[in-house]
Amino acid sequence: MYKSFYAIAALLAAMLFILNACRHDALFNNDGSGGGGTGGGGVVSPNPCSPDTAYFVNDVMPIIASNCAMSGCHDNVTHADGVRLTTYTQIMNYVRAGDAANSKLYKEVIKTGSERMPPPPMPALTTAQKTIIQKWINQGAKNNSCAGRCDTAVFTYNGAVKPIMDNKCVGCHNPSNLGGSVDVSTYTAVKTVALNGKLIGSITHQPGFSPMPKNAAKLSDCEITQVQKWIAAGTLNN
């Protein structure tokens, strides 16, 4: 009897440990804005997008979530080298607001060769992605967001779908890192998951599908509409 009691107690303790280990800070508030943190502070509601501003929620977090904070790297479970990059607060531990050149986050992503982040054979960040991170830091590394940048009238593959995949999905779903055995790094690969229903199921968070993107905000209604319209129009390579 006592052995059974201690066995049950040990099992419950293990379950509590696992549950606590899987928890992480909320990235977004209930209103969809960025969660609180250090540096620039949280935002209450999104403002209209400015072409001259880099936004954490819209621009930076999707890049980091897709390329740095995935399983095996800097998510809350793996936390390689003790680094977690799933929330604004965590990311600010490696950022010096207003000074990209002396921010560890930026210095790591601009490295080349085997020292770069994400490391080979993962695809390197594009020049445009590095520039977004640099601009965001130099503009104060604020926990900001905006609304209105997306246009549902644009729903071609190259004009809408590919940019969404590149910035928010490819880091976790490429030939070197096939999360869920899914690849969205090429037109053919995206078309495959579009036609089998996995793409829409995941980005709309339907039951039975793994919600995507991981560790980042759900795609906006506008972005989801763009993908849906592209599929409805025939998943063309346009």
**What gyration radius follows from the Cα positions, in whole Å?**
19 Å
Q: What is the 3D form?
A: globular
Which sheet architecture does the biggest sheet show?
2 strands, parallel
What is the straight-line distance between the termini? Answer: 69 Å
Show the helix and strand layout.
Layout: H1 2-22, E1 47-48, H2 56-67, H3 88-91, H4 104-109, H5 127-138, E2 146-147, H6 157-168, E3 173-174, E4 177-178, H7 187-195, H8 198-203, H9 221-232
Helix pairs in contact: 2-5, 6-9
Please, could you describe this protein's structure?
The structure is a single chain. Strand 3 and strand 4 (177-178) form a beta hairpin. Strands 1-2 form a two-stranded parallel ribbon. The chain has a two-stranded antiparallel ribbon with strand order 3-4. Helix 2 packs across helix 5 and helix 6 (157-168) crosses helix 9 (221-232). The chain has 9 helices and 4 strands, in the order H-E-H-H-H-H-E-H-E-E-H-H-H. 35% of the residues are buried. Mean pLDDT is 79; it is low at 1-44. It is mostly helical and 238 residues long.
